[in-house]
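User: Hi! I'm working on a homework problem where we have to compare a predicted structure to a textbook description. Could you give me the structure for the chain below?
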Amino acid sequence: MSRNAWAALAVMSLAAAALMAHFVRAPGYMDSEYYYATGIQLAEGRGFNEPFLWNYLDDPAGLPHPSHLYWGPLVSLAAALPMWLGSTGFRVAQIPFLLMAAGVPLLAACAALRMGATPRRAWVAGALAVFPGFFGPFMVTTDSFGLYALVGGTTLLLCAALVARPHWMAWGPAGVLIGLCHLARADGVLFLLVGLAAVWSSGRARLRSAALLITGYALTMLPWWLRNLSAVGSVFAPGVSRTLWLRVYDDLFAFPAARLTFERWWAGGLGEILQARLQALGANLQTLVAVDGLVFLLPLMALGAWRLRAQPVVRLTALFLFLLYGAMTLVFPFAGSRGGVFHSSAAAMPILWALVPFGLEMAVGWGARRRGWNPGHAERTFSIMAVVLAAGMTLALAWPRLSDAGQGANWEAGRRTYAEIGAELERLGSQADIVAVNNPPGFFLAAGRGAVAIPNGPPDTLRAVVERYGVDWVVVDANVPAALSDLYARPDSLGWLDPVGTYSLPAGTVHLLRVVAPRGEAGE
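Assistant: Happy to help. Predicted structure tokens:
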């Protein structure tokens, strides 16, 4: 494309990202809050530690707790970078994510050009990425979407380029990119398989190329592996393997996590195991159609992929998506269907957007042959319509989340609710007490207090967590685990919890309960 075309796309990308970021005034949900909170810890010199517990997979001893034993550290490092230089406000942490979101359309246009698109078609690919549908507000908060799209998309393009024009020394940088993918998301390790497949497809110096790829990956991961070894005595985070044996999503918050075993998982029966994976398959396919494909773009992506099926970048992207959807359906069905696929498919989005103009060209060619369309005029018209429709859908999907009219579904409802509870604790004279809540990172950010997760289990399990971690208060809302539904309906039902107040807050009705029973005394 011409320099002016690149400049126009860059300005449009930055303006759209800045406009979306203007309305995203808080992290919005637990993943983003986790990265922001741990970014603050880094920026303030507290290192890789977290003043909350959001799961019990590694049998944590207490607070503070080594951070990033489930999620990778790269997003938190990105959030911390501007906060090291300035304040620790969310707007400061948001800066690199806004810039990365603005960079994704440029990568999509670059990918289209690498596939052989004309400058005009490449510009259309970039314009579609400016209006990313469901991804809109998530791209500009403190989460992995924009970062993973840039690093993952670049990895796919570089590996594809090395298949087409092998150069054994360049496999080292490809390995570094794969390491960054893994530091961004745990499933980034799938890119190592994609990279090895690319090495094999290149057909030259395979052993040497594979060794360089793995070396680049290992050198990138080595500092993090050494940190884990120092913090928890293991290169790989302890307890994460227990997520293989979840029977329901809420088992992620089981206590003690040692009960998450293969024997318990298998005891649920083959029917339960298959049902969970069939449900995950259905949910993940919905994500593919509605989120990644924005419904109307998916057929054009598929047509473009079919047309360019011989190109290495298309084959490698298809392999990555196959591995991702397979892992998130068969191995981690609950994590996948509850947001894992949504997060991780962002890595393939620059390539998928780049395929749309090729698919549109095929569709217009069919119309010209069967309907007598003018190919040039029809393609321009439909390209404009696609971009306008993507923009409209992006706005329609984001507005209910971000506007004040969203009420309970509002992006900031959780933060406002926890801020109110934190203020109430201040009024009650509570100082450094630990609180059990559904979203510990969010509560820490809003109320500035140590927090642990309400465990998945009956009152006895909650009592065990209270005693183990010295919990002083319990905050119960509508998202309470099923086994504690009676506590939400009747907050005075347990003798060891004193209902201090019930509040109607942005996230709904919330009960604040004080732990009153002496330590070690049996609860009702």
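For your comparison, note the following. The mean pLDDT is 94. Residues 126 and 368 are 25 Å apart (CA to CA). Good luck with the assignment!
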